[in-house]
Write a structure and sequence with these properties.
By secondary structure, this protein is α/β, with parallel strands linked by helices. It has 12 helices and 12 strands. The strands form 2 sheets. A 7-stranded parallel β-sheet has the order 8-7-6-9-10-11-12, with helices on both faces. Helix 1 packs parallel to helix 12 and helix 5 packs across helix 7. The chain is elongated, with a radius of gyration of 21 Å. About 40% of the residues are buried.
């Protein structure tokens, strides 16, 4: 089969060759594009003869999927899949898997990096120290003893909850279903509004759906403590980012740590959150550790092998 890899997977050539050897040994043809080109007209030409597609978070619209006349399977090297036209895949009988779980601990660790950066003013104090200044005028706040509110207790949210407990936080959570293991460890489930109202830190770990689009809006931000922090390492459009910028300017909340906004970087210079105070902003790095990239590629190529054997895993459709 012709396997088309549409974007660089963030691993070395050596690791790539090791992980794809079972496929090439089985006679599959691998065609790899690492040039970052993602316009639809180019993609339509590239996918025409592909039987299997591999991509990360590159958008794949129905027009491109239609052009892939031989396509049977897509292995997404990413946890999310809202960038793929799944309705077109269903229409054409194309099976889709994702790389669920590859970055669980990577994202959870970044969540606490952002929390710590805000509580200890690490970013501004680094600049001040380099300029010969002192800590004067900057507060230092413990994480221990704070109430950590988690929206979404899937794999990543659960990992964050366990780390929060280890830091000595009181952990409360909102989710459509409860995790009895977390309850046994001391996590308390509450309503969305209760979590927002009671938490010192609110961290987001929910998927983007029609229901969660702009879930954290002006009204929800107004429920939070003026001393509270908002952390988003999930997906940007869960938050109304313009409302968040306004809330930060108005001291409705105390700060925000964001690995995601409602677009992929680079972010335009006039984007409101860039001018908001007390923020730590990252260019979508939560998933991107060296170790996570190896795990991601391993899952992605293993998905192909399992699908070929009729035992599809990490099923999206």
């Amino acid at each position: 089969m012709k396997i088309l890899i549409l974007e660089h997977l963030g691993i070395s050539d050596e690791d790539f060759n090791i992980l794809t050897k079972p496929l090439t040994d089985n006679g599959h043809e691998l065609v790899v594009y690492n040039d970052g080109i993602s316009d639809n007209e180019t993609l339509k030409v590239r996918v025409k003869d592909a039987e299997i597609l591999v991509l990360g978070n590159m958008p794949l619209c129905g027009e491109v999927i239609n052009a892939a006349e031989k396509l049977n399977y897509i292995s997404i090297a990413f946890t999310g899949y809202n960038h793929i036209d799944l309705e077109k895949c269903k229409e054409k009988g194309i099976k889709v898997s994702n790389a669920a779980g590859y970055s669980t601990h990577s994202v959870a660790e970044l969540t606490f990096g952002l929390i710590t950066a805000l509580l200890r003013n690490i970013v501004p104090l680094d600049a001040i120290t380099r300029a010969g200044g002192t800590k004067n005028g900057y507060r230092q706040i413990d994480l221990n003893g704070k109430t950590l509110g988690i929206l979404g207790t899937g794999d990543i949210g659960s990992a964050v909850a366990k780390l929060g407990l280890a830091y000595g936080c009181k952990v409360i959570a909102y989710n459509r279903s409860v995790n009895t293991e977390l309850i046994a460890q001391g996590v308390e489930y509450k309503s969305l509004d209760e979590v927002l109202t009671l938490s010192d830190i609110v961290t987001l770990h929910i998927p983007l759906t029609n229901e969660t689009q702009s879930l954290i809006n002006k009204d929800k931000l107004a429920l939070m403590k003026t001393s509270s922090l908002l952390i988003n390492t999930a997906i940007g459009p869960i938050v109304d980012n313009d409302a968040l910028a306004e809330a930060l300017h108005n001291n409705t909340i105390a700060g925000a740590g964001l690995d995601r906004v409602d677009m992929e970087p680079p972010v335009p210079a006039d984007y409101p959150i860039l001018q908001a105070p007390n923020t730590v902003l990252m260019p979508h790095i939560g998933f991107a550790t060296d170790e996570a990239m190896i795990r991601r590629a391993n899952i992605t190529f293993s998905n192909i092998i399992k699908w070929e054997k009729g035992a599809q895993e990490n099923i999206v459709i």
